[in-house]
Amino acid sequence: MKSLMSGNRSREEQSRADKCDCIGGKFSPHQDGRRLASVDEQSFMTVNMYLNSVPLEMKGATRILKEPPSSTARYSPTEDDVLGRVPLVLGTAAIFRDHLWHDGEELLGGEKYLLRTDVKYTRDTPFNFDAMYGGMSDEEQGKKALKIAEGLEDAGNSEEAVRWYKKAFRLYPELGRG
Question: pTM for the full model?
């Protein structure tokens, strides 16, 4: 099966450096989510690069977690939910899919510095909405277009998002009557 996305990978233009220097500091359980730069370019992978070392007894590791039992409830993982830990070691990196549940373990002492970025992929051939979704009902197509618009808006691509919102509401006007 041929991939729709090519090996043209680039580092996300907007990286984020995080510093956690307070005792008890942590990142709550979350998924990073896909970044839709355009309909032809998006991320699927997160990269966390650790910029300092923290002794294991001070904790602060990135913990890889099981999926929460419910997407609507607040997720408070137990030790049984922890699939693995990435300790804070200068020069190491954790690379994982954007839908993977993870958190930042409570830091008991010291400082934690990390650089977080995404790996973007570009389609080999331009996205063709009609070829992919043309066999669906107008309602289903409208909902697909709406999801694309929301992803574009979340990524800050408002011009392209507006085009997709218009397409979504043109395909299925009921979307605007919620």
Answer: 0.74
